[in-house]
Amino acid sequence: MSDADIYMPKGLTVGQDVRLVVTCMDWRLDRFIDRDLNDGNTIILRDAGGSAGTMENTIKQLSIAYNVTAIVMAGHTDCGAMGLVFKAVREGAVTSPDVEHALVRPFRGQIFETRAELESLNPELQAGRIREYADKIGAHATPMLIDVATLDLPKHDGEKRLIITKPTLTHNSRLQQRDTGEGAEHAHYYFIQANSVSDVLPDIRVAVEAVGVKKILLVAEDREQERQFTNAAIRIKKEPWIGDVPVVLAKARAKVTG
Ligand SMILES: [Zn+2]
User: What's the topology of domain 17-250?
Assistant: First the structure.
């Protein structure tokens, strides 16, 4: 199996009705996603800003395996990725070509005056980008704006880290337990969840360059993912923007038998 082959999250059967939620990697959404969105029939996909572009392959692959009934494009207020878009489009800041293509370009030519207007526009625009495909497979594409001011956030302050996983039903709180390194109890975890790491390299770049994550953890849930993530880690480490950020593989846990 290659990195881009269809991956099927555990706990679902082929052809089953599922909802997809595409949202931002921001750590402040972690608890909200676990409590309000992850209902056992929802596959959570995350990237920088909740952008449709980098998730297109993953959405298409999942819709081959499952009966996708809804695709929710969930943006949020005070989004760092939208801050980057705002600076690039409204203030002429220069972004790298890969980040421009993945994140910024869909907003060029769009009308917005303020960062708040951009953040409201984002989920609408992303739902619009996926709507034609959603219609084709009989799914509803709907926008959602999460107001981070209303979220229950951990009070501690720690370094920002990034967890990369395949699309999964596993809660964020469990995935972050896979970080057994020092400082894990105080860290804030950004999440990138996609079928193929090569699709989300620009998003990982944003996490490193704009967010300033101090560690990247690839969390494998089975042996096949472990193999793919071993290769993905090598790929990420070759990127010139990675600097000295450690890229660590959390191997699949041994199956409990008996
Ligand atoms: Zn965000």
Answer: Beta-carbonic Anhydrase; Chain A (3.40.1050)
